[in-house]
């Protein structure tokens, strides 16, 4: 009898600890990209359409621009350059070390 009560108590305690760990994992912050602009999400499609409007490879440009915009929540103004306004966008690189964002 005492053994069954001990078993029941340990099962309940295990369940409670499991719940606490799941709740703690749900409340943990989502990691963000260093230098990302906080605040409401911008219209990445519109910004990247303009940014890539003069590109010789517009589809490739828009795809990489949208990826960078989603990560950084910013796109530099104009069709090229101006990276100082969005350091996160400038800092994104490929596995080969080349800049990812147009």
Automatic annotation (TrEMBL):
Keyword Signal: yes
InterPro entries linked: GASA (IPR003854)
Pfam families, alphabetized: GASA (PF02704)
First and last residue of the signal peptide: 1-24
Keywords from the UniProt entry: Signal
Origin superkingdom: Eukaryota
Family listed: Belongs to the GASA family.
Annotated protein name in UniProt: Gibberellin-regulated protein
Organism this protein belongs to: Arachis hypogaea (Peanut)
């Amino acid at each position: 009898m005492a053994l069954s009560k001990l078993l029941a108590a340990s099962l309940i305690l295990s369940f409670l600890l499991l719940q606490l760990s799941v709740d703690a994992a749900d409340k943990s912050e989502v990691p963000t990209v260093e230098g990302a602009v906080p605040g409401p999400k911008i219209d990445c499609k519109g910004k990247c359409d303009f940014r890539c409007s003069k590109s010789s490879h517009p589809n490739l440009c828009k795809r990489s621009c949208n990826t960078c915009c989603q990560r950084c929540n910013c796109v530099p103004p104009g069709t090229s350059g101006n990276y100082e306004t969005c350091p996160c966008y400038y800092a994104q690189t490929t596995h080969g070390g080349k800049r990812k964002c147009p």
